Structures are given as structure tokens and as C-alpha cells.
Amino acid sequence: MLRRTITGVMVAAAAAMPVTVATAAPAAAAPAILATQLTYSDSQATQYSSQIAAAVQVWNSSVTNVQIRKATTGQTANIRFIADPGWPRAQLGPVRPGRQVTIWMGRQAIDQGYNITRIASHEMGHSLGLPDVKPGPCSSLMSGSTGGVSCTNPNPNASEKAAVQRNYAGTAQVADTSVILEDAAY
Ligand SMILES: [Zn+2]
């Protein structure tokens, strides 16, 4: 009686093995959710290259649904940085592959002492579809200049990260990039 029971269990286990393998295969083959890949160019703002690269790194480590790398020579970048004498400003995204938005790295704010990496990261927030949230604290990236001249925080807060994740979740509408947001200090 006991032997027959054990044998029955072993047969059942052996029979279950191929089934286990069969169910594991489709799971392993499930398509991964790929991040939207964007490119940027700093060729017209080379004096700010290191701060722009730092801002790109901030965003790449803050979100997963979109990733940004430097455009190769001759490649049209999705996000174009231009050094400019005015106030920092940017075309509102979210920019998609095949499209281009511009960020003007305005020297007027830089001359007043605003942190360059925070400016680049804030304007990239606009490229990725975030509006200004002014006035706001330094902990908010999109508070921009209202965070104060002494504010050096280049990192989006939790809600800002979540908004960009939603913008690149695959269901968002293509933005009208004719809107330009200017970040004059006030
Ligand atoms: Zn802004």
C-alpha cells in the first residue's frame, strides 16, 4: 500500500516535469518593454557640455521609459541645445523619435548665478513634457528659478519622474512642440 503510493507520487512528479518546462518557455520569451531612445546634441552649446551631460545622466537614472544618449556626428538630435544670450527656454514635449525640440541655454540666468546643471535638467524636463511648477521649492526641478539662485538641485522629484514615465508609457499623444516655455527669473 505504502509502496504503491510512493510510486504514484514519483510518476506524477515525472509527468509534471515537461509541463513545467513548457510553461516556463513562453514567460522567458515574453517581449521586454523597451525604453524610448532619444538623442541630444550640444554642438551649439559646447561651453556647457559637461553640465548638459550631467543633466542627461540625471534623467537617465531617474526614469526608465525614456533614455537619452548623445547623437552621433551627422545624426539629427531629438533634443538640441543652443547657447543663447536670453533667458533659458525650451519647446514643450514630450518629444518623440523622429522629432526635434530645442533648448536655449540662456546666459542671462547663468550670469545671475543660477546653477547650469539644474537649468539644463529643468529645460530637459520641458523636452520630456513637463510644465513649469512655479513658484516651488528647490526640491522641485520644475520650480525652476523660483527655487532660488542658491538652489543646485538637478533632480526631478517623485511626481516629476512619474509624469515623465507616463509621458513615455506608450499611450501618450504626440505633443505640439510649438509651445515655448521661457524661464525668466521673477
Ligand atoms: Zn521652465
From TrEMBL:
InterPro entries: MetalloPept_cat_dom_sf (IPR024079), Peptidase_M7 (IPR000013), Peptidase_Metallo (IPR006026). Residues 1-24 form the signal peptide. The keyword Signal applies. One of its GO terms (cellular component) is extracellular region. Its EC number is 3.4.24.77. SMART domains: ZnMc. Keywords: Hydrolase, Metal-binding, Metalloprotease, Protease, Signal. It is an enzyme of class 3 (hydrolase). One of its GO terms (biological process) is proteolysis. It comes from the Bacteria. The keyword Metal-binding applies. It catalyses: Hydrolyzes proteins with a preference for Tyr or Phe in the P1' position. Has no action on amino-acid p-nitroanilides. Residues 29-170 form the Peptidase metallopeptidase domain. GO terms for molecular function: metalloendopeptidase activity; zinc ion binding. Belongs to the peptidase M7 family. This is Extracellular small neutral protease. It comes from Kibdelosporangium aridum.
